[in-house]
Amino acid sequence: SKTYKGEGYNELLFEDAPGQEQLNLHAQRDMNTVVLNDRTTQVGNNHREKIGEEQHIEVHQNRQKNVGGVERQKIGQNKIEYVKGDYQHFSNLETLLSSAEGDIIFETAGGKITITQDGQILMLAKKIIINGEIVKINCGQSLQTVDVGELLYNQSQKKNAWLAFQYFDSNLQPLPHLKYTATFETGEKREGQLDNNGYVYIDNPPSDIIQLEIRNNTQVKWESMFNYLDKILVKGVNNVDR
């Protein structure tokens, strides 16, 4: 039907010619569909939708989507998600989170980790725990500066406080007799030299270490000292086999 006193038309077309069957529905302006119960749409081949402006979808209960192949999203501007409950992501293989130009931020009420676009990793929290049998830190070339925060620092009631670390090359071979400078929270600095096995022990440090400098072009590995802690608590610092 042609639009009354205007341009355009509404159309409902049926074509039944063999090989050309089609149902064509054309609305010159608005189209409203109301379904009081269920609605089912089944497409045997491809399904395409093109929306010139905005799309709003409102689901009062659950929504489920199953994709048998690959799903891709391309968003021209921002994407914002609000989740009132838990948010979970499961991946059987690799998960990649990449930001080409901006920072990547992980934040909770008690802490924050920021990977900046200029190559820094910033960790803000009341307490940071790194727990591993071996922790490797590669500090690059020349003078090496490691912000270690609380480096294997132990204070047990009236026991003597101590800290220790071991230094390795890229082949995990101990590097002995290297000179180091340790800077503490109090501002005090202590200099020394690693022993034959690449270890250094500092008894009764004034506070936690905030900076460690080692003058060598190698790779660093922090050795777990918890076994030494057990020995010290039982025998005392001076009786530990070093």
Short description:
Pfam families: Gp5_trimer_C. With 242 residues, the protein is mainly beta.
Which characteristics define this entry?
disordered C terminus, four-stranded antiparallel β-sheet, single chain, three-stranded antiparallel β-sheet, mainly beta, 242 residues, Jelly Rolls
**Share in helix:** under 10%
- Which CATH class of the domain at 134-242 is shown? Mainly Beta
CATH topology label of the domain at 134-242 = Jelly Rolls
Q: What is the string of helix and strand elements?
A: EEEEEEEEEEEEEH
Count of individual helical segments: 1
What's the N-to-C terminus distance?
97 Å
Rg measurement, Å = 33 Å
Structural class: mainly beta
Uncertain parts: 141-147, 152-158, 217-242
Largest sheet: 4 strands, antiparallel
The general outline is elongated
Count of beta strands: 13
Mean pLDDT: 78
Q: Write out the strand line-up for the largest beta sheet, numbering strands in chain order.
A: 7-12-9-10
Question: What share of residues are in beta strands?
Answer: 25-35%
Task: Please tell me the CATH architecture of the domain at 134-242 by its name.
Answer: Sandwich
Structural description of this entry:
This is Gp5/Type VI secretion system Vgr C-terminal trimerisation domain-containing protein. Pfam families: Gp5_trimer_C. The strands form five sheets. The chain has a four-stranded antiparallel β-sheet, with no helix packed on it. A three-stranded antiparallel β-sheet has the order 3-4-5, with no helix packed on it. The chain has a two-stranded antiparallel sheet with strand order 1-2. It is mainly β and 242 residues long. The protein is built from one helix and 13 strands. 8% of the residues are buried. Among the domains are: 95-128, no CATH class; 134-242, Jelly Rolls (Sandwich), CATH 2.60.120.
